[in-house]
Amino acid sequence: xxxxxxxxxxxxxxxxxxxxxxxxxxxxxxxxxxxxxxxxxxxxxxxxxxxxxxxxxxxxxxxxxxxxxxxxxxxxxxxxxxxxxxxxxxxxxxxxxxxxxxxxxxxxxxxxxxxxxxxxxxxxxxxxxxxxxxxxxxxxxxxx
Length: 144
Hints:
Layout: H1 2-28, H2 35-38, E1 48-49, E2 53-59, E3 67-74, E4 90-96, E5 99-103, E6 106-110, E7 114-118, E8 124-128, E9 134-141
Antiparallel strand pairs: 1-2, 2-3, 3-9, 4-7, 4-9, 5-6, 5-8
C-alpha cells in the first residue's frame, strides 16, 4: 500500500513539474522589445485584405503580453462577421464613418470619436451603417 501511495505521489509531482515547465517556456518565448519594434506606423501595403475591406494589426497576440490592437476598415453596408460572443471583453473605437453596433439584442448607430464596450460573453457585432468606409480600432485582451 505504501509503495502505491509513493508511486501516485511521484507521478503527481512529475506531472506538476512538466506542466509548470511548459508554462514557463511559453512565458519566456516573448519577443525582445526595443524602441524600434514598439513603435508601429500604419502602412497600407502591410494591411491584410479581407472580404469587406482590410485590417492592420498594431499589436497582435504574438507580440503583446496581454492585449491586442487592430484597425479594421469596412466597406459601406458590410460587416466583418455576424454577431458573436467570446470570453474576452472587447473595445471598439470609431475613427471614421458610421457604425451600427449590436449588443445583446439592441442596436445603436454611432459616429467618430465614440467608444463601444463589449462585456465578456455578450453577443455583439459591428457593421458599416454609412456610405463611406468605416474605420475603427479593436482592443481585446488575449486569453492565451
